[in-house]
Amino acid sequence: MDQEPILDVAHLGHLELLTPKPEESLRFFVDVMGMTESGRQGDSVYLRAWDDYERYSLQLTASTTSGLGHAAFRARSPQALQRRVKAIEATGLGLGWHEGELGHGPAYRFHDPDGHVVEIYYETEWYQAPEALRPSLKNQAQRFPARGINVRRLDHFNCLAVDVKANREFFESALGFRLTEQIVLDSGEEAGMWLTATNKSYDFAYTKEAHGIKGRFHHITYALDSREEILRAADIFLEAGIPIETGPHKHAVQQTFFLYVFEPGGHRVEVANAGARLVLAPDWKPIRWTEEERKKGQAWGLKTIPTFHSHGTPPLPGHHGPDDDVQLDLSTNGIAS
Amino acid sequence: MDQEPILDVAHLGHLELLTPKPEESLRFFVDVMGMTESGRQGDSVYLRAWDDYERYSLQLTASTTSGLGHAAFRARSPQALQRRVKAIEATGLGLGWHEGELGHGPAYRFHDPDGHVVEIYYETEWYQAPEALRPSLKNQAQRFPARGINVRRLDHFNCLAVDVKANREFFESALGFRLTEQIVLDSGEEAGMWLTATNKSYDFAYTKEAHGIKGRFHHITYALDSREEILRAADIFLEAGIPIETGPHKHAVQQTFFLYVFEPGGHRVEVANAGARLVLAPDWKPIRWTEEERKKGQAWGLKTIPTFHSHGTPPLPGHHGPDDDVQLDLSTNGIAS
Amino acid sequence: MDQEPILDVAHLGHLELLTPKPEESLRFFVDVMGMTESGRQGDSVYLRAWDDYERYSLQLTASTTSGLGHAAFRARSPQALQRRVKAIEATGLGLGWHEGELGHGPAYRFHDPDGHVVEIYYETEWYQAPEALRPSLKNQAQRFPARGINVRRLDHFNCLAVDVKANREFFESALGFRLTEQIVLDSGEEAGMWLTATNKSYDFAYTKEAHGIKGRFHHITYALDSREEILRAADIFLEAGIPIETGPHKHAVQQTFFLYVFEPGGHRVEVANAGARLVLAPDWKPIRWTEEERKKGQAWGLKTIPTFHSHGTPPLPGHHGPDDDVQLDLSTNGIAS
Amino acid sequence: MDQEPILDVAHLGHLELLTPKPEESLRFFVDVMGMTESGRQGDSVYLRAWDDYERYSLQLTASTTSGLGHAAFRARSPQALQRRVKAIEATGLGLGWHEGELGHGPAYRFHDPDGHVVEIYYETEWYQAPEALRPSLKNQAQRFPARGINVRRLDHFNCLAVDVKANREFFESALGFRLTEQIVLDSGEEAGMWLTATNKSYDFAYTKEAHGIKGRFHHITYALDSREEILRAADIFLEAGIPIETGPHKHAVQQTFFLYVFEPGGHRVEVANAGARLVLAPDWKPIRWTEEERKKGQAWGLKTIPTFHSHGTPPLPGHHGPDDDVQLDLSTNGIAS
User: Fold this and answer.
1) Which of B162, B159, B157 is nearest to B202 (CA)?
2) Is the pLDDT of residue A207 over 80?
3) Is residue B337 part of a domain?
4) What's a Gene Ontology MF term here (chains A, B, C, D) (predicted)?
5) Per the CB < 8 Å rule, is B332 touching D299?
6) Pairs across A and C, CB distance < 8 A
7) Where are the alpha helices (DSSP H) in chain D?
8) Which chain D residue's Cα is nearest to C149?
């Protein structure tokens, strides 16, 4: 190791999701996911999981369509923020400083090579629970809600990208993320990448966009404490009429125990188990999965569901709504009429 | 086996608990336990867990004190009911038929030798979930509530008795219950008995009343699906300010994974894991625990907490309220003020 | 209810499975399932789970093919046994008394209408653990093994039947089993039945044989304590090279949390969670699933895997071995080469 | 934040424990804990958990007494190692370079202010599983053992210190550890500290030595995946005759779900759940627990057991063996004789 690692990004901070059905999406995140509203501003409602230490981890913005508004990473220090801004500016992808956002200080925004909007900030507002939401144990941000599935904290997100490799190299060199796992096709093309800035084995992933369209979003993931809670979440989603796409099952890649559903605004939402698998090695050697290996399905043999490779947000052009490219599957998803 | 077993009792049906704090008790059972109100009549509110098939399993009755109103068992058939009534009448402990109760047909009431009121009935009202509580799977009584700790079904109850042996013999001979485990002191006195009419290893228990007072109640138990859910319940009780008496831990007797709390009306309420341990043998040989064995504490070594042997409902005479004989312990039970 | 229920069968006792690979099958049940060998006689090895109270629950018999040797139910009393024998003899399906079997007294054998061999017995040998396998808690049959997946007890089995209805009626009238759930096709044909003699929601199931061949076996099921243990079992099966057919997932029918694998002799083996769902009602109204409802897949939307409808033991004629009709699926089941 | 954080320590690498009963200790760690022997050298046997990426995480060394041989941290880079060595040398506590240890490169050894031996190294040997222990999923270090309690990875350790504050300041300034929680007595004296170099909420803790003796060890902790596995571990320890000191229960401090036992050599060994709680904030504000708060016991009200404050390794002078200061408790720990 000739060069020392860049350690300037502390962690994923929040995501902004656009929704064409703001009220239904809000009800999903509050009533079913068990999240707490912690602010409103303009067309946005801000939401948090009970273990998020910052004021919010999700900004839900009313819009004409679905998709990622922006993703935000917190820098490790003011100096770290300045260093990253300088590196991003050098790539020509910088968009400039963005101020006045709820809950955190100045953020520098930029495009990734696929056109998603990303920002980095340092100053942040720590969540102060109101009396009714104050926890019994003082080392916890907020009272456990005991409502719906009780998601614990924002875990990661997944974007689609036309050129996965270009995005990987950008996030590695300009931001200092480390690659932990990837999928490389027989042609040599990279079809998936999992990057981390923490001891979590990934903070976000980019997978191959099959339709040549830039800037689409694949899913947001909240963590639960145990696999048992994810199984119970499946029961609760079923009872609430939330379409389950696939799972619960265990991914071979990253060994994540997963469950994917669609929220009313059209986004794929994952709940996954938190943190049992950590990457502690500072010099972790990325795991490379081949095309053949990935054909074998998930860890215990489940075949990957076709919509997992086709559905993203916003929906494909010509599709009239987010449900369009998955309607065939959704129609048979519930059990009882 | 010269004589064939009596199989006339099908299962525990419901309990009536008296509460001096009806509104607070109701809020506990609905908001924290996750139960559903399914009727009101006179001074009583009727409550059910999501997997109870009958209309209710708990009748909460406003009163000047706490304690057991009555316990009710469902007979296996109309003929079984008649046979048991005849046998009870022969003991001289019969109280007579009781009609017009909400949710079930004529019940024959009687005293057990310790003076608790018990009834047996056959006809019952199956719960019909209203639209909003209809489950997704048709083989389930009610939608999973996703609120509080989500208790599944009434599991068992525990009374105190001055003469445990006399009560055991009464329930065995007049009702046909089978003894699965018991505690017998070195003096030969029986200090605890666990009886069943089902494949659950016990449907109720009687343990020694140390104060010579008849008719007191020890605890009611609702079942949860897994030990993980009981651990989570401990978190939820803590957040809700519900005093935890002891647990979660595993009893040596019956190997029940337990957690005991006090509801606002003063009753000890247990949540325990459902059904992993079944007694399938029709000729089960009762397990007899000695005084020395019981001194060793619970399964993994936890010492039995003193209030477990002293507190019952109603509280002891001279004590002004249900919290009195446990106040020392309760005062140090919570973590945060 | 004019007629009282027949309560003469206590529970499922054991199964005899034939295996063309006796040594490999034995290693699977001992090393991976975590069972204990408790006897050998002739071509058979006898095995038990740690919570089985009888000497064994599985008789593994070396054979030229796979399939069910026989299934055995324990009667509730000597008188109950005599009553059932008389009722079976009246059907003309009786085969006669069978004595000298390891671990239990005289058994009366008979054919079900599909030709499977079934027996009923009363006298049994309670397991006496040797010193090294003696448990710490005296209310447990045997020490927890801490090896492989540690199955707890025999739970149920599933046979295939050309005429499901005829078998249902036979087991109801001659043996006294109660129907808890069934699948009835639009044509009126019964395609599946779940019967119980206990508070478990089923002790065995028969589903439609699609190939017109009588006497085939679908699967044997052992119970584990929790869903978490079944997820871990999937990891352990994967590591041991045991082909996973489908799961873990939750059945809509009976809500069983399931995982199906193939043991080396060719039998489908299920591990499922024990006992959270009990049927306590003595007059349970059977749940009837329609063809359309069953097309919706499992509880959380998983499609039923084709081999689940085709593979049974012994394998179909013309197939050279048990793997034949599932080979396509098995070949892609593992992840790593 | 004027000064940027020191990020030179990557993680806890391994511990060396001395044992007066080397064969019994080895059997405990292999058979009960489910660890794998991965080397022998001199008087030491080297052991690993299945998810440890380095060759080993525990060095078990035969000795005349018990206690900590040394604790080892891995640096993030060669440059990071050099920087830390320089900083340690400046404190005057340096002992010098140590080479030729199994499994890793040159290590710089030093005393902490309490006299424990600690080392820091960078070069390490990644574990290469032999054929029989190769995992099915290539992103895993070793096959899941399915033996005993199957500990996942080394999680943290706890030393006793006469002057907790002096040790905290040393590890913060010379090594760059961050304080996440601490106990401060009413007198102002620090009685406990929890430090981390990762996103785990602590990598080690030091608590007050009540007997004025330097260099003693409190416990080593291995992580399991879920609370359910820790409950099962309690069953397995009970069956194996391993004395349980306290638990399972949840600490208020750090909210760790814990279970403490004594290994045959006398050390307290903890198993705890892995990683659900992460500290992601780069500027985490340490939680300070007061004397009064700590008197309230553990999270759900369990009182802290007296031996937890008295027993350390090596045992106190005058005690003839490690069991001495806990013998009263140990004698009543098991249930059945």
Assistant:
1) B157
2) yes
3) no
4) ferrous iron binding
5) no
6) 71
7) 22-27, 78-91, 164-170, 227-240, 291-295, 307-310, 327-330
8) D146
Is B101 part of any domain? Answer: yes
The reported pLDDT for the residue numbered C322 is 44
Percentage of chain D beyond pLDDT 70 is 93
Q: How far is D221 from chain B (nearest CA, A)?
A: 19
Amino acid of residue A5: P
- Mark yes or no for CB contact D276/A274 under 8 Å: yes
Chain B residues 254-293 with a CB less than 8 Å from chain C? 254-255, 274-278, 280-282, 285, 287, 289, 293
The per-residue pLDDT for range B27-65, each reduced to its tens digit, is 999 999 999 999 999 999 999 999 999 999 999 999 999
- Cβ atoms of C257 and A231 within 8 Å: the answer is yes
Q: Report the pLDDT averaged over residues B78-92.
A: 98
Q: pLDDT band for position C274 (50/70/90)?
A: confident
The region that residue B147 occupies, defined by phi over 0 for left and psi between -120 and 50 for alpha, beta otherwise, is: beta
User: Mean pLDDT over residues B232-259, rounded?
Assistant: 97
pLDDT at residue C320 above 80?
A: no
pLDDT at B324: 53
Candidates D138, D236, D239, partner chain C, best to mutate (most C CBs within 10 A): D239
The values of phi and psi at residue D270, to 5°, are -110, 140
D51 CB near a chain C CB, below 8 Å? no
> Using a CB-CB distance cutoff of 8 angstroms, which residues of chain A are in contact with residue C293?
335-336
- Asked if residue A82 is part of any domain, the answer here is yes
Contact yes or no for C293 and A336 at CB 8 A: yes
Model pLDDT for residues C176-219, shown as the tens digit of each residue: 999 999 999 999 999 999 999 999 999 999 999 999 999 999 99
* B334 in A contact zone (CB under 8 Å): yes
Non-local (6+) Cβ contacts of B312 within 8 A are B160, B209, B216, B217, B218, B268
Question: What value does the mean pLDDT of chain B take?
Answer: 93
Minimum-distance CB partner of C252 among A295, A332, A335: A335
**Distance (Å, whole) CA B172 – CA A274:** 50
Which CATH number belongs to the domain containing residue B256 in this structure?
3.10.180.10
Mutation target among A231, A242, A255, A308 for the C interface, most CBs of C within 10 A: A231
**Neighbours, chain C (3 or more CB pairs < 8 A):** A, B, D
Q: Is residue B142 part of a domain?
A: no
Residue A239 in contact with partner chain C when CB distance is under 8 A: no
Do residue B77 and residue C282 have CB atoms under 8 angstroms apart? yes
Interface membership of D335 toward C (CB under 8 Å): yes
pLDDT at D324: 53
The answer to which of A265-274, C244-253, C317-326, D34-43 has the lowest mean pLDDT is C317-326
Please provide the average confidence, as pLDDT, over all residues in chain A. Answer: 93
Domain containing residue C174: 9-141+149-330
Q: Which chain B residues are closer than 8 Å to C75 by Cβ?
A: 282
Q: Looking at this protein, which amino acid is placed at residue A133?
A: L
Is the ipTM beyond the 0.90 threshold?
A: yes
Residue with tokens 């639960």: A224
User: Is the Cβ pair C228, B228 closer than 8 Å?
Assistant: yes
The verdict on a CB contact (< 8 Å) between D275 and A280 is no
Total domains present in chain B: 1
Q: List Cα–Cα distances, B300 to A142, B246, B291, C96, D237, in angstroms.
A: 32, 14, 18, 49, 9
- % of residues, chain A, pLDDT over 90: 90
Q: Rounded to an integer, what distance in angstroms lies between the CA atom of residue C239 and that of residue D132? A: 10
Structure tokens at A306: 């076709």
Distance CA B102, CA B124 (A): 9
Q: What is the pLDDT of residue C48?
A: 98
- pLDDT for B3 equals 84
Helix (H, G, I), strand (E, B) or coil at B306: coil
Total-model pTM: 0.95
